[in-house]
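Support reply, case 0932

Customer input (verbatim):
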Amino acid sequence: MGFIKRENKKFDYKPRYYKGEGNPYEIKQKFDQYRTTIGKKKGIKGKFNAAIDEFKGSGYKLNKTIVIIALILTLIFLFIIDFDLSIFFSKK
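Our regenerated output:
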């Protein structure tokens, strides 16, 4: 009910025997340094455009192992449901 916005208290805790660089309790994602959609404050349109540009520039590659596993699982599924594969081959 007031016009004054309260800010959260910030604590600058540093462990007594920590000799490293930076804050040891800082949480960072593993691949944040490679992403272009993180960091700058953008609107929703800017974030969406950056994500599209990142996807286009990444060069989508198809993993052959995943495709082979998917084909094998599909054939096993067709065998289990007793699907007749002869409809795909011509009878001469």
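We compared this against your earlier run and they match. Two observations from our side: The radius of gyration is 27 Å. The first helix runs from residue 44 to 57. Please reopen the case if you see a mismatch on your end.
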